[in-house]
Design a protein that fits this description.
- The complex is a heterotrimer of chains A (315), B (357) and C (514).
- Chain B has 357 residues and is mainly alpha-helical.
- Chain B is built from 14 helices and two strands; from the N terminus they run E-H-H-H-H-H-H-H-H-H-H-H-H-H-H-E.
- Chain B is 70% helix and 3% strand.
- The longest helix of chain B has 30 residues.
- Chain C is 32% helix and 27% strand.
- In chain C, strand 4 and strand 5 form a beta hairpin.
- The C terminus of chain C is likely disordered.
- Classes of the chains: A mainly alpha (315), B mainly alpha (357), C alpha/beta (514).
- At the A-B interface, helix 5, helix 11 and helix 13 of A face helix 7, helix 12 and helix 14 of B.
């Protein structure tokens, strides 16, 4: 019990939870936008890799940190566009296209990295984003280090949560996106473009996913290495179901996940001698599976998810 | 001139073959871009890849050796996708199959090879199958999507294997390497030819393809799998037990992936380690798609994908171009064959339209 | 009426789908304040015409002109629903085009405001409220559409059009999902809207309601305009002839001689998806008798069908087949014991489109010795059976190996008849047996069902088409809100009484019924 309180009582733990949650927040939001519009994007895992690599490489080549963020987002958008072309415009299988995008984005990233840096053995580091010092807030006892000593990308993720929620629930665009994921015919009958909305959603959603990857190289590890995404994209796909496709719950889900992960890392440090380390490493994946099973029965999937649409089609 | 799409009534076998072939060729052509970007010359690269894959008896053996697990994971994906069961977990099932082989075949049982090898295979098949049956039951009972669950289970399984080969299964004679105790000689798959790595797993793969082909065309089970895959509602209405059929598919699919793991352990490595598979499970998806989910096509597609990997390795050693080029070809092939499936469904027609003045 | 200005004009619209000419040089004019009925059999080309008008399809020839604000008729660009909407054309599809996860108001606003704007909801609400007051289309605007009744959804659809200041309102088979009483309510609204200056095109294949609501009737047959007449001067018989084109032989029905009870619902209740689908249903299906089940769709028909199909078992009460309780949901067991089932949605539940005709005919009995031995298919037997079925039931298809998805709706139904009737079943469920079929196929299906009854089968016909039920049924039952009531022998019944029962009113005592 003491272990539990020790961990929960340290500001460091909460800061880590938020840090771990950040890429997931980007990823879940991205997946949420795509799925709300009716497109499953299993390219997410690869888009994370592409965002991580592209952002890192841009900074490494001297583009500046925000330039790197932009490059990462563009890389994500590009793969999103490809996924949208295949699934929305050609109406092909979202499952297969997504897997294909993941394989392609991953191999393009690895190949580019190897080609750009043929001889390095240890991944070069970049001067990554540093925690912001917010006057007044960052200096608060406990609360300051726990919540307000994060890098700009974390705050950007939070801004996106608000922004996505605002667009989704307070603008006619959000109305149209929610409608096109439920019944594309409703959107077409009102003179809006099903293809336009879906392509737009997938491109924007994929750009957000790439930012999740960029966070890994530009805020968390300061370098790019193979296998660094390690299933985070798939976890986001599970979390979006857990979040019932709502931005607020997506934030909550990612934070819960981050807290759990931060907790297991600390627990491992304390009792790691007794239990093999892999048990702790397995927990995030198992947790995602359990979360998925728990909510599956009452999950309110967007009705048109996975369903291609051709113009003038009726049910 | 205008473009028009017409749905096709029927896609002939010839057309399907053309599309798959074209997909592979286009993917190979597209990688000319990264080859040039990496400072190579495409034609030289292609030639070196071809040489590396088929240029000698050794190269051919390496290619077929690499194709062996891909045939099995490819069949695993093909049989599942036909039934619209999205098994993306072949990678994990492969490891569990390999684990079962090690558990049974490293001394626990002492049987002559004629009994030992089938035992190891059955154990691997059942273990891999179980690994897919579980997510399928979860899908049926709780409605949870099998795609994400099988994907996530891959990570769990590999960590589990890591834990075992660093722990209870660790070979005390491995000088600290994280690998399991070796299989006993009786459990190992014999080589097909002396001094070459090709082993009897290849024959297993070919036989599996043949059995699946017969199953799809000739058996009631194949009929029911097709019906469930093509239209679940109609199959249920017609009295086909949909859930039970899906479980059979899951067992077969996971089992085939498990057999791939058995082949790698018992035919190639002789022991289990966490780097047993460089993504055979994921490549199996590409193989199945390239094959248009046909069992016979899977064999051909597996050889193609294997050739790309083996050829790229050899080309990479000669030119210094990263061998990730192979992954690029494979990913591009998948996307090209996906685009190709569009042309299987639609006929694109150019036609002149009279425009009124 | 024809003095009013023309709102909409179609000139020589032609549309071909491959070899089929769905619309052949059709022209029509619609005037302000007019209700024009577009009447025709299923497949006559009504829906195609309206989809061209609304921009869902692009016509091969001809054009659509709409009265523009400057008083001239302007040509509408083909294939653009946006342009049609802008020009003031509103369409209520047969299948509603509503996002069920949004409120009624959100559906109405959809696509009417700049995509990135805020705070326009209250103005929209005020405008919709005003339209509701003027038209009488009362509905709760804030409920999720998924929670609305079919009639309410239809009102949202009409409001959607009116909110966009539609000059022309097109309704595609609007009464198919309504009770006769609800339909009457819709007609009142439409007349009121027409009086206010709207032009209405009312698509239907039901002669009675067309006569009741329209000012003018345009009859389509096989893609061509078969005639155009003013409703007030129209003669029922003449229109029917225009519509069908040839005299259709009436199916002759001899009185039933009911025998023993073959299937019995004994106080059966059914819960499906957390809801009470059926409560306390009692029903006997007797040999040699056709029972007609009437009701507005969604009142429990699917529950009864699921029970007879073997897709569900009662949550309480007992379903008996030949006196034995059915305790296991197994379509296969029912098929083996001689129950024939025609699914409601024959394309979706009836056939596997990508499998062959032969496969689809054998599918229910693929495990029986007739078609397989030791788990191996007997392809030869399957083909033979298919060949005899194709000729015996006149299934038009390239052959037993053709994929079932290439068959027309009528031929799919014949395929299903061949599949289920060939075994000489003792109990038959015919669920919407002729929905969407042309007159010829309809008569054929009816003849087969009557023949099966005369042979001694117990038949339950579920249909939304009262004419069909009157043509087939010996006895009526009506389902409303999951409860079944006995309406008695068909000779003693009229449409009004059935309509009242469909709306949930108890059957009036004999003698008072009109």
């Amino acid at each position: 019990m003491d272990v539990l309180f020790d961990i929960l009582g340290s500001a460091n733990f909460w800061a880590a939870a938020i840090r771990i949650a950040t890429p997931l927040i980007f990823g879940v939001l991205g997946a949420l936008i795509c799925e709300r519009a009716g497109v499953l994007n299993l390219g997410i895992e690869g888009i994370f890799v592409a965002g991580a690599m592209a952002g890192w490489l841009a900074v490494y080549l001297g583009a500046g940190l925000w330039g790197g963020v932009l490059v990462a987002a563009l890389a994500g958008a590009l793969f999103g566009l490809l996924h949208a072309f295949l699934t929305v415009i050609l109406g092909l299988s979202q499952h297969v296209s997504g897997i294909g995008i993941t394989l392609l984005a991953t191999s393009v990233s690895y190949f580019t990295y190897r080609t750009a840096l043929p001889d390095v053995t240890s991944p070069p580091r970049i001067a990554a984003f540093q925690p912001l010092n917010i006057p007044g807030l960052s200096d608060l006892p406990f609360i300051g280090p726990a919540l307000f000593q994060q890098t700009p990308l974390t705050f950007l993720a939070l801004v996106f949560v608000v922004l996505v929620a605002l667009v989704l629930y307070r603008t006619p665009l959000g109305l149209a996106i929610r409608a096109v994921g439920d019944n594309p015919a409703s959107v077409e009958a009102q003179g809006l473009s099903v293809v336009g909305l879906r392509v737009g959603a997938v491109v924007v959603g994929s750009a957000l996913m790439a930012l999740g990857g960029a966070f890994l190289t530009m805020s968390a590890f300061d370098a790019f290495f193979f296998g660094m995404v390690n299933g985070r994209g798939w976890i986001c796909i599970a979390l979006v179901v857990f979040a019932s496709w709502q931005p607020g719950k997506a934030l909550l889900g990612a934070l819960l996940f981050g807290a759990f992960d931060a907790f297991q890392i600390r627990l491992q440090a304390q009792i790691g001698q007794v239990v093999p380390g892999q048990v702790f490493l397995m927990l995030p994946y198992l947790l995602s599976i359990v979360a998925l099973i728990l909510v599956a029965r009452r999950a309110d999937y967007p009705r048109a998810l996975l369903q291609p649409w051709t113009k003038g089609q009726r049910h | 001139m205008s473009l028009r799409l017409e749905p096709r009534d029927h896609a002939s076998v010839g057309l399907k073959l053309t599309v798959s072939l074209a997909a592979g060729v286009i993917a190979l052509l597209l990688v000319a871009i990264p080859v040039v970007a990496a400072g190579g010359t495409p034609l030289e690269a292609y030639w070196l890849m071809l040489q590396g894959a088929f240029g000698s008896m050794f190269a051919l053996s390496e290619t077929l050796n690499r194709a062996t697990p891909l045939i099995l994971t490819g069949l695993a994906a093909a049989v599942a996708f036909r039934a619209k069961l999205w098994n993306i977990g072949a990678e994990g099932q492969l490891y569990i199959g390999a684990l079962a082989a090690v558990c049974v075949g490293s001394g626990l049982l002492q049987l002559p090879p004629a009994l030992m090898i089938p035992t190891v295979m059955i154990a691997g098949f059942l273990a891999g199958g179980l690994m897919m049956v579980i997510p399928t039951i979860i899908k049926q009972r709780f409605g949870a999507d099998e795609v994400v669950i099988t994907l996530l289970l891959n990570f769990v399984v590999i960590l589990f294997i890591q834990m075992l080969v660093e722990g209870v299964l660790k070979d005390p004679l491995s000088m600290g390497w994280p690998q399991s105790v070796p299989l006993i000689v009786e459990a190992k798959l014999p080589k097909l030819l002396p001094r070459l790595r090709m082993h009897w797993g290849l024959i297993t793969g070919l036989v599996a393809a043949l059995i699946l082909w017969l199953m799809v065309r000739k058996t009631v089970l194949g009929f029911e799998i097709r019906a469930v895959g093509e239209n679940k509602a109609a199959a249920r209405f017609a009295g086909i037990p949909v859930d039970a059929t899906m479980l059979k598919v899951a067992l077969i699919s996971g089992g085939l992936a498990g057999l791939a793991g058995v082949g790698e352990v018992a035919g190639v490595k002789g022991y289990l380690s966490a780097d047993l598979s460089p993504g055979f499970g994921y490549s199996g998806i590409v193989v199945a798609m390239l094959a248009g989910l046909s069992p016979v096509g899977t064999v051909i597609a597996a050889v193609f994908v294997a050739a790309v990997f083996v050829g790229a390795d050899s080309m990479s050693r000669a030119t210094g171009i990263s061998s990730y080029i192979a992954d690029l070809v494979v990913a591009l092939s998948l996307l090209c064959v996906l685009v190709g499936s569009f042309f299987l469904r639609f006929r694109v027609k150019f036609e002149r339209r009279q425009v009124e003045a | 009426m024809t003095d009013a200005p023309v709102l909409l004009s179609l000139r020589n619209i032609t549309k071909r789908f491959g070899a089929l000419t769905a619309n052949d040089a059709i022209s029509l004019d619609l005037h302000r304040g007019e209700i024009l009925a577009l009447l025709g059999e299923n497949g006559a080309g009504k829906t195609t015409l309206m989809n061209i008008l609304f921009g869902h399809y692009v016509q091969d020839e001809g054009d659509v002109r709409v009265l523009s604000d400057d008083g001239a008729l302007a040509t509408l660009p083909p294939g653009s629903p946006g342009a049609a909407l802008k020009a003031g054309i509103g369409m209520v599809h047969q299948h509603f085009t509503l996002a069920e996860n949004l409120s009624g108001l959100a559906n109405i606003r959809l696509g009417t405001e700049p995509l990135l704007s805020f705070g326009r909801e209250s103005a929209a609400r005020a405008k919709v409220k005003k339209i509701i007051t003027e038209s009488g289309l009362d509905v709760d605007l804030d409920r999720r559409v998924a929670d609305l009744t079919v009639g309410e959804k239809q009102r949202i659809e009409i409001l959607k059009a009116l909110y966009r200041d539609a000059k022309v309102l097109i309704l595609d088979e609007p009464t198919a999902v309504l009770t006769p009483q609800e339909a009457e309510g819709l007609f009142v609204v439409l007349r009121r809207l027409a009086t206010n200056g709207l032009g209405v095109i009312f698509i239907s294949h039901k002669l009675g309601e067309v006569l009741a609501v329209s000012h003018r009737i345009l009859v389509l047959r096989a893609g061509k305009k078969a005639g155009e007449l003013v409703t007030a001067q129209a003669d029922r018989r003449a229109i029917a002839d225009l519509m069908v084109g040839k005299a259709v032989a009436e199916v002759v029905r001899i009185p039933a001689l009911p025998g023993e009870t073959l299937m019995e619902f004994d106080d059966v209740s059914l819960h499906a998806a957390g809801r009470q689908a059926l409560s306390g249903v009692n029903l006997k299906l007797r040999a040699g008798e056709i029972v007609g089940l009437a009701g507005v769709s969604g009142n429990g028909q699917s529950g009864i069908a699921a029970l007879i199909s073997g897709l569900a078992v009662p949550s309480s009460g007992t379903l008996r087949l030949y006196g034995e309780a059915v305790t296991k949901a197994s379509p296969r067991d029912l098929v083996t014991s001689g129950v024939a089932r025609m699914p409601e949605d024959r394309q979706h539940d009836g056939v596997v489109g990508t499998m062959s005709v032969a496969d689809n005919i054998a599918i229910e009995e693929v495990r029986s010795p007739a078609f397989s031995k030791m788990g191996l298919l007997d392809r030869k037997a399957m083909r033979e059976r298919a060949t005899s079925a194709i000729s015996g039931y006149d299934v038009r298809c390239p052959g037993p190996d053709a994929e079932a998805r290439l068959l027309s709706g009528g031929n799919v139904q014949k395929l299903i008849l061949a599949r289920v009737l060939e075994r000489e079943p003792r109990v038959i469920l015919a669920n919407q047996p002729t929905r969407g079929l042309d007159v010829g196929a309809q008569a054929e299906v009816h003849r087969r069902i009557l023949a099966a009854r005369d042979r001694g089968a117990a038949v339950l016909v579920i249909s939304e088409d009262l004419d069909e039920l009157f043509a087939l049924a010996d006895r009526f039952v009506v389902v409303h809100a999951g409860e079944l009531s006995d309406a008695g022998s068909s000779e003693s019944l009229d449409r009004g009484t059935i309509g009242l029962m469909m709306a949930g009113q108890a059957r009036p005592p004999v003698g008072i019924a009109s």
